[in-house]
Amino acid sequence: MGERGQITPLVALAVLAAAGACIGLGRLGGTVVAEARADTAADAAALAGATGGRETAARAARANGGRLVGFEQAGRDTRVTVVVGPAAVTARARRARGRPGPTGAAEGAAEAAAVGRAGLAPEMLLALEQADRLLGGPVPITSGYRLREEQKWLWDRRLANPYPVAPPGRSSHELGRAVDVPPEVVPRLTAVAARIGLCRPYPVRDPVHFELCRDG
After folding, report:
1. Rounded to the nearest 10 degrees, what angle do helices 122-135 and 186-196 cross at?
2. In the CATH hierarchy, which top-level class contains the domain 9-94?
3. For the segment 35-79, what is each residue's pLDDT rounded down to a tens digit?
């Protein structure tokens, strides 16, 4: 009896240690995803800021789910710091010789849009290029292609998200066939969506979500 009484606390301690390790791994995974998203947002902000200035960099960061917290520009060099959740990333960009400085906001926005479209399906890229032409400028994207780990990170935090989140493995974002855009862009993109093959499957629950229309 005495030996059994001594083993029980050890087992309980092992269980607590295992639970703590699982929590730690979960937090680590969330941090890795946040850092990846911050990398993308920072790259977009640096490219946009190099030709468009601070405000363009801030818009590019927001369009990619981040917040610009630092901006420095010296000559052709631009340095930005962007925060996404717990992650803060610094990125740099150098404007090519002969290219306009902060007055070239449109070019900066185009470069930022290109970063936000990485990983999207060819059909989605074509649809967005058509939208760019019809709307007179690049369509900003707040969320495009997602890794399964990113989708899981969003799913685990779905209660804090103002929009619905699909479980990992069931999102069109993971196939590169869906994008989310800023709310202020929704009316304009909706006006041309049918012409370029985009649909809004959840106009009430998820109004910022556009995806490639399914055949039939």
Report:
1. 120
2. alpha beta
3. 888 888 888 888 877 777 787 788 888 877 888 888 887 777 888
DSSP class of residue 143 equals: B
Strand order in the sheet with 209-212: 178-180, 209-212, 198-199
Alpha-carbon Rg of the chain, whole angstroms?
22
Q: Per-domain residue ranges for the chain?
A: 9-94, 102-212
CB count in 10 Å sphere of residue 87 = 20
Cα separation of 113 and 63, whole Å? 9
CATH code for the structural domain at 102-212: 3.30.1380.10
Q: How many CB atoms lie within 10 A of CB 93?
A: 23
- Name the pairing type of β-strands 198-199 and 178-180: unpaired
Query: Quick check: pTM over 0.90?
Result: no
Copy the structure tokens of residue 158: 């779905």
Query: HSE (CB half, 13 Å, CA atoms) of 78?
Result: 27
Q: How confident is the model at residue 136 (pLDDT cuts 50, 70, 90)?
A: very high
Q: Distance (Å, rounded) from C-alpha 48 to C-alpha 115?
A: 10
